[in-house]
Amino acid sequence: PPVALGGTVLVLSGIYLAEHGWKKRTLTGGLMMAKEIELRERLLGRPGKPMIEAIAADAVADEAMLAALFGFVYSGEDPLRWRAAWAIEKVTARYPQCVVGERSKMMQLCMQDNIPDGLRRLLLSILYSLATDSELDVDFYNFLLGRMCDLQSPPGVQSLAMKLACRMSRVDSDLQEEFLCILRNMEKDYYSAGLKSVLRNCLKRKKY
After folding, report:
1. How many CA atoms lie within 13 A of 131 on its CB side?
2. What's the pTM?
3. pLDDT for the residue numbered 169
């Protein structure tokens, strides 16, 4: 059930725990609440990179904490949600199987117009770590094409959107050629140096 905390209702998702394979567990409401309160205090304490890495390490070993992180990302307020996403990004870098079950939900959140660019960049980073070249979500792929060409989007969002679209386009040879055609016709003079570098690598068919 939803958990009320500080005036915010959090809907906690199921998660996977690295223990003899990734098994879905159900947590008791009392344990969830205790972990949320503790984690909320740590995240709102203006944590730096060492603290975020410590939270990520704890979350890998603690299913209640990882569930709370996802709950904050989906339903928390700013800056709580992007700090939680930062910790999940660290988890994903080492244990992607821990978060792969949340991939579709993160795609849907990433496509929302009203989320901060910082949170969107972190979601794209997480999703890039989870991406494969054997499946395609059409709506999300079209979203990526729009973001990578959007001059109003931050360079970090544009670059990650392009890299992720490049990887997803490999699901079909015709789709990949269409993607490369879009890149060739982009107005390169208006984009950042970092995005131009990603664009060149995509055109050279380097693996992303």
Report:
1. 28
2. 0.81
3. 93
